[in-house]
């Protein structure tokens, strides 16, 4: 009660919080979330997961900013897949059926599950090379009739 009265009367003491020992980190900005590839796989994983979802850790692939989401450490042999050049990475990533495998400077691997392009389109990383392909929808005769009935 005494503290409330001191505040109400404008007489409460004001003690500035010391900066030493403070743990608050300011809001991360997208331009500060670029992935530095010259570090071990565990650090890459922590960086990607630490920026998941906002602002999103990113790298440049084929001249455009691509944001990485959903990483996990991969402790297995190097999987088969299609190579993908990533700007700044000492070794190309590999697009596999499970996602994009990237390598730390220690040779260990990180699996990234989702990628988001500058236009906001998000895809499973495993579909990187088939992202531009569009499958035509083929309707059976029965489905065509149903579509007409619905119209």
TrEMBL record:
The gene is Aldh1l2_0. Residues 29-130 form the Formyl transferase C-terminal domain. One of its GO terms (molecular function) is catalytic activity. Transmembrane segments: none annotated. SUPFAM superfamilies: FMT C-terminal domain-like. InterPro entries: Formyl_trans_C (IPR005793), Formyl_trans_C_sf (IPR037022), Formyl_transferase-like_C_sf (IPR011034). Pfam families: Formyl_trans_C (PF02911). This is AL1L2 dehydrogenase.
């Amino acid at each position: 009660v005494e503290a409330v009265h001191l505040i109400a009367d404008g007489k409460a003491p004001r003690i500035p919080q010391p900066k030493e020992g403070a743990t608050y980190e300011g809001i991360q900005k997208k331009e500060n979330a670029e992935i530095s590839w010259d570090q071990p796989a565990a650090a890459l994983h922590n960086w990607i997961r630490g920026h998941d979802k906002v602002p999103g850790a990113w790298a440049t692939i084929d001249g455009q900013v691509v944001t990485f989401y959903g990483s996990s450490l991969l402790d297995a042999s190097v999987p088969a897949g299609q190579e993908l050049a990533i700007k700044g990475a000492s070794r190309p990533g590999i697009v596999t059926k499970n996602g994009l495998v990237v390598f730390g400077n220690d040779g260990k691997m990180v699996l990234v599950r989702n990628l988001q392009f500058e236009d906001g389109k998000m895809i499973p990383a495993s579909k990187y090379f088939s992202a531009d392909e569009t499958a035509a929808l083929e309707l059976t005769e029965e489905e065509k009739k149903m579509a007409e009935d619905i119209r």
